[in-house]
């Protein structure tokens, strides 16, 4: 699913609310009908189902090398060493970044760092992966590598929800889109929503090609 909206429309805010890192001023987040509680326990439980990857990888990378960064979440769950290694190997494979395993994160390209942060989220084995503007700042080859990785995650039965202001990309990739504008969300099939001139004009978005 793609969350679409102009700059400042609230995409990042919506993703942070869904991830539990921001508490909504009204309304609730539900997972399978169960409301999220903003307690330590509630949030800990929620983070095992739903993982958010921020737009800027440098907000999320802080270990010396790729393996340690990807291992950080599982290590925090208190898993034993062999389980952590297994999850790290699986996540590196999903993002096709095995060759980066021993590399210091600060030596990697922006696109590589983005894929390392996604691997870190996948090592938590979430049901839902939230990605804030995963294609922003990538060159065309980087975007292609990113979406190749996202296809692999979908085949791994992870639900991917991403934000973007690129309507053409959303139209091509998403099964469902949600347009954020003026505090409201219009959600539906890409053909229904992205071909609706009124919705697109109001949201200050360009219709897909
Ligand atoms: N913590 C916050 N408290 C109040 N307003 C915020 C906060 N974070 C962002 N905003 C405002 O909310 C609006 C939506 O921001 P954001 O979710 O970052 O939009 P987008 O990701 O679509 O560009 C903006 O006007 C922004 O300035
Ligand atoms: Mg944003």
Largest sheet: 6 strands, mixed
Total of helices: 9
Bound molecules: adenosine-5'-diphosphate, magnesium ion
Q: Which superfamily, in CATH terms, is the homologous superfamily?
A: P-loop containing nucleotide triphosphate hydrolases
Q: What Rg is obtained from the alpha carbons, in whole angstroms?
A: 17 Å
Indicate the CATH class: Alpha Beta
**Strand arrangement, major sheet:** 4-5-6-1-7-8
Query: Could you tell me the number of beta strands?
Result: 8
Structural class: alpha/beta
Mean pLDDT: 94
Please indicate the count of domains: 1
Percent of residues in helical segments? 40-55%
Q: Give the termini separation.
A: 19 Å
Which fold name is given in CATH as the topology? Rossmann fold
Order of helices and strands: EHEEHEHHHEHEHEEHH
Net shape: globular
Family: Belongs to the ABC transporter superfamily.
Main location: membrane
Keywords: ATP-binding, Cell membrane, Membrane, Nucleotide-binding, Translocase, Transport
GO cellular component, one term: ATP-binding cassette (ABC) transporter complex
In words, what does this structure look like?
- It is built from nine helices and eight strands.
- The protein has 209 residues and is of the alpha/beta class.
- The strands form two sheets. Strands 4-5-6-1-7-8 form a six-stranded mixed beta sheet, with helices on both faces.
- The radius of gyration is 17 Å and the shape is globular.
- Bound molecules: adenosine-5'-diphosphate and magnesium ion (MG).
């Amino acid at each position: 699913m793609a969350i679409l909206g102009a700059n400042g429309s609230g995409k990042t805010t919506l993703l942070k609310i869904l991830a539990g890192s921001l508490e909504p001023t009204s309304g609730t987040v539900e997972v399978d009908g169960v409301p999220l509680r903003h307690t330590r326990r509630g949030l800990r439980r929620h983070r095992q189902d739903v993982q958010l990857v921020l737009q800027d990888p440098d907000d999320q990378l802080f270990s010396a090398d790729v393996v340690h960064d990807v291992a950080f979440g599982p290590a925090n769950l208190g898993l034993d060493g062999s389980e952590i290694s297994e999850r790290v190997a699986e996540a590196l494979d999903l993002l096709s970044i095995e060759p980066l395993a021993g590399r210091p994160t600060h030596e990697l390209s922006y696109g590589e760092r983005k894929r390392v942060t996604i691997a870190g989220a996948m090592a938590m084995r979430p049901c839902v992966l939230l990605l804030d503007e995963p294609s922003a700042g990538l060159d065309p080859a980087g975007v292609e590598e990113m979406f190749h990785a996202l296809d692999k995650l979908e085949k791994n039965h992870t639900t991917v929800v991403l934000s973007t202001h690129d309507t053409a990309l959303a139209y091509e990739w998403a099964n469902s889109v949600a347009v954020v504008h003026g505090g409201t969300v219009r959600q539906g099939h890409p053909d229904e929503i992205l071909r609706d001139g009124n919705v697109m004009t109001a949201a200050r978005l360009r219709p897909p090609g």
